[in-house]
User: Fold these one by one.
Assistant:
Number 1:
Amino acid sequence: MDTQQRIEAAKLTESENGMLYGEYLQLDKILSAQRLLSEVHKATVPDEHLFIITHQAYELWFKQIIFDLDWIIAVFSNHMGLDESETLGIIKRLNRIVLILKVLVEQVMVLETMTPLDFMDFRGYLCPASGFQSMQFRDIEKKLGLRLENKSLLKPCDQNKDKEIQENSKENDLSLAELVERWLERTPGLEENGFNFWGKYKKNVESLLNMYYNATLDAKTDCEKQKRMADYERRKATFDSVTDIKLHESLVQRGERRFRHKALQGAIMITFYRDEPRFSQPHQILMLLMDIDSLVTKWRYNHVIMVQRMIGSQSLGTGGSSGYHYLRSTLSDRYKVFLDLFNLSSYLLPRGYIPPLSSQIRSQINLYKDYISQTNDDTSA
Ligand code: HEM
């Protein structure tokens, strides 16, 4: 059978069984969507083809991320509390988002094969188009829980785009960060009249700090004593910032912390007891959320390095921002949605100081599902 005969046979099978590859994927639309502006201006720059394909590939992956994020958000939005039978599904999808982001971080390198001079040849045709106007990117940021102050950087002539972005995102929808915060607040074991994890944690922090303080008294020389005292004071200030609710709230107000105090307690508790069967999946979820945050930051970093290489650090962006300098500012901690999870390690205790679980809480967390429905009954009563 020659090639032509094989195509004819495939077409026959298509009409009998359904559709062909190209039709199913609507490749006619996707593959005809690369319009080189340099070609339109009769000065074709071949690398513009790569530039368009790269952006389109990004947008397709953004679409998949949004699709999976929507599913995760819907599951977390359950007012009865997270249905435990869904946690594996959440982990599967978070993990997929992590893997896609890894591809997106690496993909920057393909575009770096274009030289700045080639880019200069067609950049002028793009203005004012910019990745800054990627509504899907903004949507991902918003669904994750980033506050979108940067929108004000859009140029006045782009205000319509700004409106479009706002209209497309329902203001009242809770972000993943807000939903995770609500979920963490329900961590079993936090109740003051039950296991009272926080009461036990504070007591053990006190013993730990006493141990450090006593170590300063044992120092043999003044110099050693000063060093130990400075170390003690630094540790004390760190723990105070989490045990003193007022201090915590002032940090939240300054934007240096985000979660409500109870949610932070839940995250610390899950981190301590992650080996308990009922806490191991919640712990995986926390790790994956941090992976997402770090990969978005890594993407921002790779992108900004590429931008500097292509347009330098003095040119304005086609979207109207200060370009390189604006993008550099997005690498700061303010752009980490799950910053509190990254900082958890500062509040951990050495193993010997972790409050042991009582048999009651052990059985409680092994009956987590029943516990959640009981709590809901209690609060609605
Ligand atoms: C030659 C390659 C590229 C250059 C020179 C470039 C340049 C820039 C600049 C200067 C900005 C700041 C906004 C402005 O335009 O004023 C920006 C933002 C952005 N670019 Fe690119 N970009 C490139 C490739 C890409 C690619 C491949 C993507 C993939 C989708 C992308 C996505 C974005 C996004 C999402 C933003 C907004 C970032 C934020 O506000 O945090 N860019 N880009």
Note: The CA atoms of residues 181 and 263 lie 5 Å apart.
Number 2:
Amino acid sequence: MVLVSILGMSIVPGTLLYFLPLTARLVFAYIFSFLSALMLFPVAQFITGSVVTQISICLYNRKHKPEERFRSEAKQIAKKMGMDYDKPVYVTDNPRVKSPFVNPLTRKIMLPSSWEKKFHRTEIIASLGHEFGHIKGLRAYAKEVFAAMIATMAFTFVLGLFTIPVILVMAEFAFLMLISSYIMRRNEDRADFLGANATAPEWLYICVSAAEKRIQERRGFNHSSSSICKNQSTDASFG
Ligand SMILES: [Zn+2]
């Protein structure tokens, strides 16, 4: 809602600023800067949060080596997806790792040890399938990110012809956040779908109904809203 308001304000009064009376410009500046702060605050929190998490994971792993597990299961899931994978899954006691996550570039999957106590093996396999879905879907995701960048550049270029720099920067940011929340949601759904296909078909039903529910609710991206990620409250960078 905040993002849409910023975009709307940037386009309509934002491009006509010079034609507006001084009071209207002041009211615009006041509301616009308030909305911008509202937009930037959670982003700043997220960035500092994930940086701290990544650093703490690195430091923690040096002292307490993660246990190497699920090598054959991982290999099997990857094989079903048509990938070669010969690495274990790293199980960690680090309390900062609250849910499984993958770094799609190094293809390292981490799993919190608490999950082994909390969940049944099939649920763990299904969540590993989701993480493999992220690895498999990396190319599609990268293409969408590229398309989003082009779209943002085009939008910024056109708007830049008509408005002042400060409005332009905020509008670009709002546009980028809106489009990337859509892409990230698609990325989660794709990982659910690929993972469910390779692990247990019954998960597919849960994934599809969760996706339908989400579309009905039309709410914004939230990694924990992903069906298999439903137990996640991750603050790690890749879920
Ligand atoms: Zn995920």
Note: The chain has one domain: 2-226.
